[in-house]
Design brief:
Layout lengths: L15 H10 L1 E2 L1 H6 L6 E4 L3 H6 L6 E2 L5 H8 L5 E5 L7 H11 L3 E5 L2 H7 L4 E3 L2 E3 L13
Parallel strand pairs: 1-5, 2-3, 2-4, 4-5
Antiparallel strand pairs: 6-7
Length: 145
């Protein structure tokens, strides 16, 4: 635990190493999700309907964050390993969604980078036109599509 004199300009009272260990238990990388057996994860898009309609991760289920408490018990099987995502790193919507799932007792992880980094890694996206896949952005991935 950081002492008061160690809090410095950030004002942290929590030991940074403890924080980052805990954070790593609550996050998952887009490539880890993409390479996982689809049967092992229950992926939830937590954005608004218009964003879902624009494009989403194939096999994801749409549950907007505000509706998780009322819809998750009927749509997400108990015991599922839930992965939530929203737009991207500039949006904390998936953090609120992960909290909502955790408060319901689900095992949940937040997708780092959201749909933005899913797309930037050249991974498939489902749209009204079907499955589309762009080229990976070489600045964000070492993987090839």
């Amino acid at each position: 635990m950081a002492s008061d004199d160690q809090a410095g300009i950030f004002g942290m009272k929590l030991d940074p190493a403890d924080y980052f260990r805990a954070k790593l238990q609550c996050e998952i990388d887009v490539m880890e999700v993409a390479e996982a057996d689809p049967e092992t994860l229950f992926i939830v898009d937590t954005r608004r309907r218009s964003s879902w309609d624009h494009g989403h991760i194939p096999q994801a289920v749409h549950i907007p964050t505000a509706l998780i408490p009322s819809q998750a018990p009927d749509l997400v099987p108990a015991g599922s390993q839930v992965v939530v995502y929203s737009w991207g790193p500039g949006c904390n919507g998936s953090t609120f969604a992960a909290l909502a799932f955790a408060e319901l007792g689900y095992s949940v992880k937040e997708l780092i980078g959201g749909i933005e980094y899913w797309i930037r890694n050249g991974l498939p996206v489902e749209t009204d036109a079907g499955i589309v896949q762009g080229a990976p952005d070489v600045l964000v991935t070492a993987h090839t599509a």
